[in-house]
Amino acid sequence: LGAALLFDRGSASQGGRATQEPQVARRIARDLQVLAVACGSLVLVAVLTQLISPSSETAVSSADHHHHHHPELAEASTYKLVPTPLLSLNPDRKWHNAELAASYDRPTIGSDLVYLSPPASSEGDEGGFESGGRFLGLTDATPLKSKCPGDHRMTFLPFPDFSPGMVRLRLEPGRDGKGAMEMDSAIPLPLTSTPPRSTGGSEEFLNSTFWGPEDENDAECRHRVSADPGGADTEGLAGPLPDGGFIVAEEYGPSLIRVVANGTVLVRFSPRPLNLPKAYYPVRPVLPSILVERRHNKGFESAFLLKPEQFQLACGILQSPLGPQKHSTVVRVVCVDLDRMEMAAVWLLRLDDRHRMVNSATELGEKSFAFLERHHGEGTVYGVDVTGATNVLGHPLLETLEFESPDFDFAGAGISLLEKEKILEYPNDFLEDRGIRLSDKMEGIAKVDQRTLALSNDNDYGKEGDSFVYVVQFKDPVLDL
């Protein structure tokens, strides 16, 4: 019976071959008749169920078809930062431990990334990415936090007066898709990365962290660092805005900081309880109060712009879910209206699993963005259209941790989460076949054009190797959401 059924289904799928084999067909029919008489109607039900159910071949075909919806890559290239003095990130500042700083030449410039312009030779060209394009990178907090030589329970900052900021980057072509990246100039922000005293975790940091020894052989850390009332841990970058400025997302608050092109701070949007009264620039505490429940070092690591209904929004995505619930997978996307300087939206986004975190984002359109979620050396870039998702700003549960509960019934509450569509997954065969392995700490993504995406890594100021920008091009315009 099994052989007969297989033959019958196979012949039917080949356009009626059974009619060309009358003797076999009559034998199959006679066998089925005998079985029906002998075994009763249950056999017929089973046979009919098997005949009308999709074959394994059909199921595989469907799965393959879905798989092929994943965007296909066409090209990929890498650009390594050439040796760049750490001192060049703060060219106009007097350095503590300047001699030590001069010995470092692999700075972190890829905490996030923004695409600025194509090379001069391709102005107006609608084609793919060309080497020579210019980006704006973001440096991380003060580098090289280390154990005090005389007491390993304590840590020291060799450069506590370091100013994080933006850097202008230029990508130059190379052979076999391996080019070089040069830093044209740095734009340090007028602040340090030492936390304000009122931010979460600051007391522990300030009570255990010291100015570094005057040289590497000094066994003691003598001077405890001071809080910076306007300090920020810079992690996300978005722009440029119509006025040429940018949005910097930071972890301590978490906060969104609007800066002009030269780095001057126009305003910092912080959670309501965090008004930073001693900050030396304007602070507007309008973000939801619940954001102060961020996990340790898990504030905003991403920033992007939206412009729905002609309102210019600056947005940040929390790196991880709020609160202590370990099995939560829902993070909040928080957006500010830059014209009214008030909250505009809070959307909810579900991560693939509880180990993943959001490390960067980039705008795709007026109502869409892409973001990177990852865990160690595995990550996925997703595209999101905010249309259709529920803005929970004003929801009675906004200032609670109910949304982070794994048992929360969003459908029952009438809340639609943001839907995400896969754009790029790594590691993948296309990149590995070209000898490209993305860093374990990918922290920046930037849309270049409809087919091109750039990614950058955080190299921990040389502890994790070199700084890279990776550029991938797709066969289709997948970044046009």
**Tally of DSSP helical segments:** 7
**Helical percentage:** 10-25%
| Terminus-to-terminus distance | 52 Å
Q: How does the helix and strand content classify structurally? A: alpha+beta
Number of beta strands: 24
Largest sheet: 8 strands, mixed
Overall mean pLDDT stands at 84
Arrangement of strands in the largest sheet: 2-3-6-7-1-24-23-22
User: How big is the Rg?
Assistant: 28 Å
The best one-word shape is globular
Spans of at least 5 consecutive residues with low confidence: 1-26, 34-68, 122-128
How big a fraction of the residues is strand? 25-35%
Q: Any chance you could write out the topology, listing elements then pairs?
A:
Layout lengths: L1 H12 L8 H18 L1 H12 L3 H12 L5 E9 L16 H4 L11 E5 L16 E5 L7 E3 L2 E7 L7 E8 L5 E11 L13 H7 E3 L22 E5 L7 E5 L4 E5 L5 E7 L11 E5 L12 E7 L6 E6 L11 E8 L4 E9 L6 E9 L2 E8 L2 E8 L34 E7 L2 H5 L8 E8 L2 E6 L10 E7 L7
Parallel strand pairs: 1-7, 5-8, 12-13
Antiparallel strand pairs: 1-24, 2-3, 3-6, 4-5, 6-7, 9-10, 10-11, 11-12, 14-15, 15-16, 16-17, 18-19, 19-20, 20-21, 22-23, 23-24
Helix pairs in contact: 2-3
Keywords:
481 residues; alpha+beta; eight-stranded mixed beta sheet; five-stranded mixed beta sheet; 7 helices; 15% helix
What would your notes on this structure say?
This protein has 481 residues and is α+β, with helices and mostly antiparallel strands. The protein is built from seven helices and 24 strands. The strands form five sheets. Strands 2-3-6-7-1-24-23-22 form an eight-stranded mixed β-sheet, with no helix packed on it. A five-stranded mixed β-sheet has the order 9-10-11-12-13, with no helix packed on it. A four-stranded antiparallel β-sheet has the order 14-15-16-17, with no helix packed on it. α2 packs across α3 (41-52). Mean pLDDT is 84; it is low at 1-26, 34-68 and 122-128.
